[in-house]
Prior knowledge:
The chain is α+β, with helices and mostly antiparallel strands. The protein has one domain (23-191): Beta Barrel (Sortase, Chain: A), CATH 2.40.260.10. Helix content is 19%, strand content 34%. The chain has helices spanning 2-17, 33-37, 42-45, 76-81, 149-154, and strands at 54-60, 65-72, 84-85, 99-104, 122-127, 130-142, 160-168, 178-191. The protein has an 8-stranded mixed beta barrel. Strand 5 (122-127) and strand 6 (130-142) form a beta hairpin. The longest helix has 16 residues, at 2-17. Residues 1-44 have low confidence and may be disordered.
Amino acid sequence: MRIFILILINLIAFSSLFPGETSDIDYAAAENPSQHNQETSIDRVFTGAGPGEGIGTLNVPALGIVDTTFYYLPSKENLRKGPCMDGPEGGWQAIGEKGRSMIAAHNDKEFKNLDRINTGDEIAISMENGDFLFQASEIRIYRHRTDDWNETAYESTEEYGLVLVTCYPLNKRNTTGDRLVVKCKMIDARCK
């Protein structure tokens, strides 16, 4: 309930900054997310953003992550700055595009408590192309020696999905190659 109130307050505050302006698509919820994708393109998502540049903010209230900037393309340098969204280069879609998007962060920094997320917890993302609300739907540990990465991360029935990824076990610098994967489904989108 608190996240709903926070999001509502942010939306009201944001809309008051631009009175009289309307977005191309005012509302695209889980009932009709395909409407949302019609006016959004990868070019619009990344206008002026290059690798390592901040492209949005991430909010995961259940983990105490509030207004955390995330960056484009996960590299060692970029992950030192904060969470990173992978792009088409890594086989992922931009947040708000049809398909699965991914945000990765270090297991001893922003995602150090990722194992505390529960199904139903909400993840709010704000970017140049819109504000997106996701809900955690599956939490899984990918074991690199026995699991198929495509099944663990990519496979989904969600048309618009988000995957949060970090190394596992948590809070360790040297990991085994295993990953903690949280799959999320989009439950609301407001395109700008």
